[in-house]
Recover the amino acids of this structure.
DNA sequence: GTGCCACTTCAAGTATACTTGAAGTTAACA
DNA sequence: TGTTAACTTCAAGTATACTTGAAGTGGCAC
């Protein structure tokens, strides 16, 4: 079975070694055995858990929630209902978050088009655009930059 | 023209008044006039900017980047290129972020289905599921909970 | 006129998630 | 036999984004 040093895991996940030690300290990536020199030896199960940690963290879960999740998962008692509740709540909040980000993406896109058109209008001595015209507009995702974007 | 107290803006955006003062202090929501009693009077332009601040913050922009953006926007000098660069970079990073979140959403969904099936297997005295079976599976977004999810 | 509420400024404090530093150990290499 | 790199533990420090507290002002109801 594959085993990894802290440095290898650090590189694998682009996380500093200090962060991996921190995750162990706060109890979300635990039971890491040591070799004869006292160095951490990461195994496949730790890699799998770290993937889950990164996924959950990336999607906005706090350390406290991660601690709760893994305390349920590692407990001998039956916490399957708690796990399902936590995951279902996180899934729902994540779905909402993605929807909000998609709306925000459109806002950023509008701003970008607005300033690109300001630049164009200066180069061509045309009337500068007005933000009002962009406020409710959506733009196709063609990166060619050829389309005017205004009707 | 509509004017708002700090409390009204606070409620409008679900932000504590202290945060609005903080945004003024660090220079991202500035030029807020005071009435005869010295209280802040927010106008439409401040509401519009606050919407942009919330959008940018929500999509992961730091205060430092917001400061840069508005220092460009408010400057008399020609910073349109800088604004376009900043917005284009933010748009790209946001697109990547949304894609990553969609992948992470699938991971969360798999975990949820796995634990839901663990629960079902206990209720029906069936063999408990194995995580390996869920690792690469995708699930339709039907909330009915009727489908088994396993083939 | 006094109680109270919402506001003001300014300074200091806080939560989260790490990061850094000090001091020491181990193993490989010149 | 150094010495260099990579690791260890433990405590303290840091960045970001606010939040809280103290002390004071203004305007309105009773």
């Amino acid at each position: 079975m594959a085993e990894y040093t802290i440095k290898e895991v650090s590189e694998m996940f682009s996380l500093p070694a200090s962060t991996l030690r921190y995750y162990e300290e706060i109890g979300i990536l635990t039971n890491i055995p040591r070799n004869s020199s006292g160095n951490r030896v990461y195994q496949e199960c730790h890699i799998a858990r770290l993937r889950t940690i990164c996924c959950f963290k990336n999607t906005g879960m706090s350390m406290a929630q991660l601690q709760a999740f893994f305390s349920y998962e590692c407990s001998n008692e039956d916490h399957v209902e708690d796990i399902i509740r936590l995951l279902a709540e996180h899934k729902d909040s994540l779905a909402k978050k993605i929807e909000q980000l998609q709306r925000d993406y459109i806002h950023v896109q509008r701003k970008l088009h607005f300033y690109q058109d300001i630049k164009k209008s200066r180069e061509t001595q045309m009337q500068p655009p007005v933000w009002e015209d962009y406020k409710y507009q959506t733009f196709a995702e063609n990166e060619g930059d050829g389309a005017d974007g205004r009707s």
